[in-house]
Amino acid sequence: MRPTTLASQSAVLNPAVLYTVLLVLGLLAPFTLYPTFLMKVLCFALFASAFNLLLGFAGLLSFGHAAFLGSAGYVCGLMVRDLGVTPEVGILAGTVVAGLMGWVFGSLAIRRTGIYFAMITLALAQMVYFLVLQIKATGGEDGLQGVPRGHLFGIVDLSDNMAMYYTVYAVFCLGFFIIYRTIHSPFGQILKAIRENEPRAISLGYDVDKFKLLAFVISAALSGTAGATKTLVFQLASLSDVHWHMSGEVVLMTLLGGLGTILGPAVGGATIVTIQNQLADSVGSWVTVIMGAIFVVCVLLFRRGIVGEIQALLKRAGMQ
Amino acid sequence: MLDKKLLTVACAAVFATLSAGAQAQYSGNVVKIGVLTDLSGTYSDLAGSGAVLATEMAIADFIAKEKPAFKIEMVSSDHQNKADIAANKAREWFEREGVDTATELVTTSTALAVMKIAKEKDRIALINGAASTPITNEQCNDVSVHYTYDTYALSNGTAKAVTQQGGKTWFFLTADYAFGHALEKDATAVITANGGKVLGSVAHPFPGSDFSSFLLQAQASGAQVIGLANAGADTTNAIKQAAEFGITPKQSLAGLLMFITDVHSLGLKPTQGMYLTTGFYWDRNDETRAWAKRFFDKQKRMPTMVQAGQYSSIYHYLEAVKAAGTDDTMKVMAAMKKAPINDFFAKNGVIRADGRMVHDMYLVQVKKPADSKYPWDYYTIRQTIPADQAFQPLSESRCPLVKK
């Protein structure tokens, strides 16, 4: 087993300090940056982190995570808009539905590995895409529009951007904490063991399938949390959330930020969202080209991703 | 000494009031237009940078002709056909950058998303590129204008005219999602009302690339007209493959949602003889030619109806701002609805209570390659569909703003 990244990190940088600084930064950010944009960053950061739990720590490349993000978004949107439930119930419902879907997808997909695993998840996600396209309730290609942000716990009015931001921030922190705990638990250690050498984990007596499935379900459920929150932020759910492009984008986010690092996917998610949003005004049609170029450069030169490279640098500096 | 101080304070107070007064008229002392369009994807040809150019032209022309007392600025952004990016950008524009109107908005999902935000933030949405009818029906609101065209106008115009001109039997090739089925349903109603008959239809997956089996079914049906109830790449692929199978010109095709850019990219060979409805054709009269030539000099392409409509809608908006003497949303909307639109794009165009701008539409037929004398000489105008017949009548509107 590879030495855990945390151990090497703690030699040079105390994670407790790092996370406290980041937490405070997150609290102060909406005073300087545009809150709606930050909320989008947080949603995608959580989505990428959830995805990374599966790819980075269990070594399973799912190519269908958009299905969880999107379905949860639609479920949350429909419940808040048409049934009039409060936002937190909507998010919870989205999470549960995504978790259940994750259980179904996972049960089928973990029977295979590698490319077959990716293809099964892709196929199932495409089925979800076509379902969403066809069902009347989802609004087809027009998307689910006009979802009210509502009142959190029936009290706090979320149409205020600041209130919404701190709600999203709380959801993100909770989700991120769950992922952090999962990775640093004995369960997380076993996942890494499976990633590194599956036959050995089996020979040690672990029921590998059970662990993989549980990781899949947690990852799907948290992707759902991200999707449901995103729907509330933008007050809409659209087909692009369930499209396979989204499944590809989350792979890009994770790779760019640093596969298998804890903060990496969040950084990657933030980077991609920033590029998409900020460059859209200045360079127009070049956005997609720039994204492609970044991906190529990342894969060729920074294979560990942004956070992975920084960690490697710190580690080298610490050794000298 | 004291008096001088007092005077200074008084002067400052007067100036403050004056400038506050001016700000109340034009927020931020400037009328700001945000063009939110597809600059990189499927619709960048029919809207995209051409729509941005059209907006710039409208602003420049308005300043040159009307010499307004207010400043006009424009920002543009690529929404990448994603509703969440569009929503994010529109929100930012309205909340932070003082944008007064978000325009263009190709792709219905982005248009609907921006309409909701415009309503919430009390700003205006001028929709040109998006096509679906919910914009002026179930989802309508009083701060949005659907300016150029919609699917109702296109499918009705084409289906009616083709049936009346002898295309009595139809077979539909329908994209298998709500939009495609809506097109087919609307067109079918018109065909039967005009004495035609629909022999059958086949739904193809969306997006589709291989249409061979569907086209063979259409061929076997023996229908005179094959209606293409789809859009974008689905339509162009179906047309190409129909030509390869030799279906055209024995049976004719009718595109229910087609643009001049589609004809341009396919060429005249596979598209010749097709009927389609459009809100604008550059080679219609001297006025349209003059404008289109100016557009062509900069863009190196002839304008689509979306781009022409974009120019017209921006010009009309600025006129309304001038007439109202303010950029206050409801006052400008009232001025826009009050004044008829008369320019190269529309004659006596009117914005209705549901937000639909109604104007004449044109039924055109694509020329044979031999008849095309110069670049972009693609259409023969077969019929002008008067405004009151071209669009969905107000009595059928499902918009809650329409009082019946």
Provide structural commentary:
The complex is a heterodimer of chains A (320) and B (404). By secondary structure, chain A is mainly α. Chain A has one domain (15-244). Helix content of chain A is 74%, strand content 2%. Chain A has 14 helices and four strands. Chain B has 404 residues and is of the alpha/beta class. Chain B has two domains: 31-149 and 285-355, Rossmann fold; 152-278 and 361-388, Rossmann fold (3-Layer(aba) Sandwich), CATH 3.40.50. Chain B has 14 helices and 14 strands. Chain B has a five-stranded parallel β-sheet, sandwiched between helices. Chain B has a four-stranded parallel β-sheet with strand order 7-6-8-9, sandwiched between helices. Chain B has a three-stranded antiparallel β-sheet with strand order 10-13-14. In chain B, helix 12 crosses helix 13 (329-338). The A-B interface holds A 34, 36-37, 40, 130, 133-134, 136, 139-143, 145-146, 159, 161, 230, 234-236, 238-241, 276-277, 280-281, 284-288 and B 39-40, 44, 48-49, 75-85, 87-89, 91-92, 95-96, 108-109, 112-113, 116-117, 120, 132, 134, 139, 176-179, 205-206.
